[in-house]
Amino acid sequence: MTHAPSLEPDEPQRELSAAQIVGYSLASLGYGAFYALNNAVLPLFLRTYTGDARLIGLMGSTHSFEGALIQPIVGSASDACRSRFGRRRPFILAGTLLSVVLLLLTPAAARLPGLHFEPMVTWPLPPPLLAMIGAIFLFTIFFNVAQDPYLALMPDITPKRQRGRVSGFTMFVMTLGQAGLVLAPIPLTMKFTGTAVLMLLTTLLTCAFTSERPRSGAAGSPRFLSGIGRAFVGLSTLREAGKALCALFFSGIGIGAVFPFLTLFVKTITGCSDHDAERMFLLLMVGTAAGVIPFGWLADRIGPKRVLMVGFAMIAVAALAGLRVQSLSQIGAIMLLAGLGNSAQTASGYPLLT
């Protein structure tokens, strides 16, 4: 007697069509622009107002450490949500809208009187710089509130056997958003506006074209406080997921320490312009775009954990090679290698957790 393969609780059985995959992935275009802004543009923007590497690194890594705290809480809260708009979309829409407003306010804070270059952070901070830091901190918090339920929506609507491919395509679209922002020949301050507009439009389109499957349970509002308890209970019982999160946490420490300084590193080593430094970051995105769909396919074939280990190894080799580079061509080569490693990691990390 044969048995059908077991499904996860509430796992969808029908694979997504090509149109459904595209519809879900549209929001990644705007979220990709946000990542490029956070990692490539923001450090160059802040360098105009402060030379303190501690402040630049902290603001450029806000998505990493805020996400580590917010993800389990917001994820659990959206799990418990039973609103008539779905359980993920209220978070996606509210978080994106608030993040967009604060993105628009950040360059406005830079135009306030009394803001000038400081080689080191001095206390008390000038009010315009304090307002800018506050806006950056808050728009990354709300970005996490939006993006984490967006990622959780993927396994809600996708069967396990298709998740590597869907995740790979979604990450490919995200790299297009990153590349588009980096290549845009506009001033750094205008890139905040471009990111905000793109995030808002693509998120609205995804929420319009992607239907959440009905869930059991009475309708209700998101419960943030109960979500905290659910998150810790979940980590204590899902021990394999806890191990995976620990591995991703420690890899994120290393990667998060490097990302805010990539464009500044290129400028320091080669003395190139801001735009040339951004183009080197673009090579990282090219490597990611080239590998993310093949690595997503491979994750569906050999398992996401093996693909994740390959990605970590490639990133480690690129990081060690970065200690020896001296020219733009050498930097470009390690950026491509790191991009391939990043594609393996992004295509496999979330399918592994789910």
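^ that was protein a. below is b, sequence first then the tokens
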Amino acid sequence: GPLREPAERLESVDFIVRNGGDGRPGEVLMHLDGDTAVRLGDGETRPLASFKGRKVRALAGIGNPQRFFGHLRSFGLEVEDRAFPDHHVFRAEDLAWGDDVPLLMTEKDAVKCRAFSQKNLWMVPVCAALPPEFAASVLNLLRTKTCGRQTA
């Protein structure tokens, strides 16, 4: 991505994977996939859709917090969000909203917040979802580069 690699690097890559958006010709589009929330204190799991129609709060200390907040909103959640800088070191005060409204966060942030385990803290595990044909393209490229032949 542009925060980790210079633009010139695009000239030497085999694939360009874009996270969200419309994409450009030749790019592979991926999106966040994950529809479950896990309570930090006891590991209870709930579908994200079960929070629909009620107010939730969300925090994220990641490179693009709006992407995470958008993912939550795509399930119809009414999200009051709070973004923190990437790699933020959370303190108990960061989680103190003064009520028991569910507070959703990324897995990355949950690792840092486990010590503050309040009953209303939930993490939302997500993974990168790529088109099924992308795996075949990667395997073909690997075979070509290592064995000099393509597969069907």
